[in-house]
Description:
- The structure is a single chain.
- With about 400 residues, this protein is of the alpha+beta class.
- The protein is about 45% helix and about 20% strand.
- The strands form 4 sheets. Strands 1, 3, 6, 7, 8, 11, 12, 13, 14, 15 and 16 form an 11-stranded mixed beta sheet that branches. Strands 2-10-9-19 form a 4-stranded mixed beta sheet.
- The longest helix has about 35 residues, at about 230-265.
- It is globular and about 60 Å long.
Amino acid sequence: MDVESALKYIDKQIIKDGEKYLRESVRFNIVQLQSCNGLTSCPFSKADCEFEFFKDEKGKRFISFAQLFKRGMTFLDEIVNVGKGKLEGPAKNAILCLGEFFKTKKNDEKSLNFVFKKRKSGTFKASETGITVALAEHLLKKLAPGGSYKVDANSHDQNPCLCGCNVKPNFSSTGMGANSVWHGFIDIVFTSPYQSTPESASDDVPAIAKALEGEEELFESLDESKDFEESPKMITEVKKKVSDVVLKQALAQTIVFSLIQRKRHPDRSNHMTPNIVISPKKFKIMLYHAENDIFLVSDYINLFNGDSLSNNAVIVLWMVLHNRMFCTGFNNVNTDIVSSLVSNFKNLVACKLETYSNLSECFVPKFHPKKNPSLNDSARGCEMDLHNSVAMIDRIKLDDEKPDA
């Protein structure tokens, strides 16, 4: 497919509606951490933290999608006027990717709906891995640069896609992190040869994704359960507990992934990296800026309108997956403003920041976690590290004062 053909499949109204939606409806909450267990040897599944969303005298503050993806918004403005042969490199690849997706969109919708309806089937229920593979194969892969992905090799039920296409996913090592801090395995890791630097021996990783299967069913069963009819407060508390667990796990994954990306690509002008937290009904976008220590999380975005994929959701996912081209992050933003938005993660893990920044790795096949100390023990450990450093300096001073033999 060439650019001209791709643009025939991308309806101009879809682009106009998508641009309006991104400007007016998609926004990010600013996360500020009060505490976390990031000092411990902890798998992502047990990541814990206390956080709140940034507020000032005017109330809760947000950052719009358009502010962070300025190049992407400009691209949407111009896309309807792009002529054949005027695009090259990543821009051309992005247009071809979107055109190919809309060309086969109806078929992919049928595949997704077929698998998602199996979630409640008593005879042939789709597993969490089945949901993950369907989302990766019939949605995210087709919107990502390079169209390549890896699914966690530790997943159960490693079968071909359940829709009947019989595509065999690439089950591979998706481990990220370091043994002594947050670490674990990512559901879906996207790789792209288009964005590798000439010096890089490996493909770039433009984004990661966490696929959900059971959360919404739990909410639905609670809402329908007679046992909870007289206790709406309990329903709310259970919902919040489940969603908080997911949010904290994804938060830890996003931070570790971003710090690894900064280590792998230190010369990039923008170190904002995304994690797509997605279910069969909706998704959130998480972004962490490894250099400025800013963590953002979007409101939920509906994935479907009825049985049809939301065109607005498709545009959001496409732009996020092509973030290296479209996301400008906090470039050219006043430094005082940037410093006021920090998540506080780097301060909370100060004595382990070197581990996060320089020892964390990606595509790790296996971790060997250490015994987890309590948060208080970890804090005392940081104090001991500082005490030992001061003591070492004092010993050096004393040695320097001794006369030569």
